[in-house]
Amino acid sequence: MKISRPLSLAASALLPVALALAGCGSKDDGESASAMKFPQAPMQGELVKLKAEGPLPAARRASALEFWLHYKLMQATGMTQALGGEDKAIAALKAVSAKFEQSAIVAQTNVPRAAKLGFDGTGMDAGVLGVGYGLIGGAITGGMLSGGLSNEQIAEAARNGPIKFSDTDGSAQVDIAQDGMDTALEQTVNENGVTGKVKTKVHVDACPDASGKVVVTIETESQMGAGGKSGAVKAKFKYERWLDDDAHLISPTDNGYDEMAQVEMSGTGEKGNNLSVNMTRGFSRGDSDYTTAKIDEHGHSIFRPGEAKHTEELLNGTINVMRAMAEVMLNGGFAGATPPWENGRCVDLKLRSDPAKRTGAEPKTTYTVFAEPRAKKDGAPASGTVKGTLKGAHSLSPQDKVKADAQFNYENPGEKDQSATIDFEARSKRGVGKASLQFDTKKGGYRITSKADSQAFCPDFVITSCDISKPFSAKVCNGRVTMSHTPGSDKGGSYSFHFSGGGGVADSAGTYTLSGPEESMTATYTSPSVCGTFHGRTVCTKPRGGTATWTKIDSCKDAS
Predict the structure, then answer these.
(1) What's the whole-model pTM score?
(2) How much is the pLDDT for 484?
(3) Which of 45-54, 63-72, 331-340, 507-516 has the largest mean confidence?
(4) Which residues contact 309 (CB under 8 A, 6 or more apart)?
(5) Nearest 5°: phi and psi at 67?
């Protein structure tokens, strides 16, 4: 028997997921119609419960559908008979799931005994199967994305490639990239005459795409085999959310999400016939109900008519838990951290000013500040807005949000020895970018120390300049060397070197260039020649050049 019927929006009110599985003619039409109405928002009760309890109870609840489907597969494939009856089949399911749980949660040491009930997939205080295993992996993934790893650790992990673990029975792999994370887990167990295998793949976007979309995908597969019989259940859940231009997730009730859920079960019947059931549900952004649903069944009916509503409820429950887990993963994980796109991971806020010199500047200097947010994922302009917040003197305009790319006007402090900071925040559907600029009118200076190989010759090479924008000179090397600098710009200038001692003199002149951040710059010195006169003989040669570190100091009185 094969049933394959795509359902339109109008037909979805009569969506007969369980009816198609059990054959036609069931009298549960009215109940199924009300049960299949798709929620307009993630179930808040499930979300609150998930955050309060943590992932393990939710993983157990989500596994109820798989327990039930595997139980029905055991009946249809003959595994139940091979194991010695229904009680032993249920006990094997419990034992296998317990081993899966222990491998997913190392701290778990004891699993409560199963209750002896007429088995319907619930009321079984056991472990987890594929979907639950995937939710545990999702909890780990969400936590690492939202505060579990720093941006520096993420960048290092992205450079170094996947993190892998393996043993004889299982493996794990974590792929970390700047814009997302993938986790893959596999485990094989043998308990009570059953060989169980579980695989799960979890993907989470850390950074939105150009439309502001972030995606969570959870894929799981669990297999059971006994007595030469086998069955498998696969589940795939894809959940998509969108950010607005202020870097906030759009409300699910305001056209802010869509999802697709698919559950497949397959096996070989007692007579060698192939058995498979496929339940697919889709919900597109902005729709009020299912847009598509397709149910395929091959082989023979696995479910009795009276089990239709129960299967329906288990399926809805699993989707609700997976939806809630996806929400937690996108919103900072169980630790309550901020989402990854909130911490500057996704947007590079580039700042520059004209004039470029911002420290040691004259009072009442006016600047034009440019703030240009760029998405790290593709380098594209992030758009959205930028807001500047001034801490200190003197004036900044505008003070409200400005459309990116943004320009601000700033006048630095009106008196000497004052400072100020402007903190900028860019917000858009690509995420949040943060950066700061510092300004001051301090009579600060620089301490210059040699990095050349000649420090053994001149161990006291330390020069202090209170104003590197003006010419300055100093004696070093126990007074034997006079070093003079004449700046041509804030990036370098010319220098001269005069040595006198030991019966001779030496002179050199050339240029120096400055690179690096203002707080600690590197000066590179070049000269065409150095000429020395000793005992009436003059010799010239090309020097090797050298470098020095220019470290900013708060004031000249701090120099030693």
Answers:
(1) 0.65
(2) 94
(3) 507-516
(4) 18, 28, 31, 32, 35
(5) -55, -45
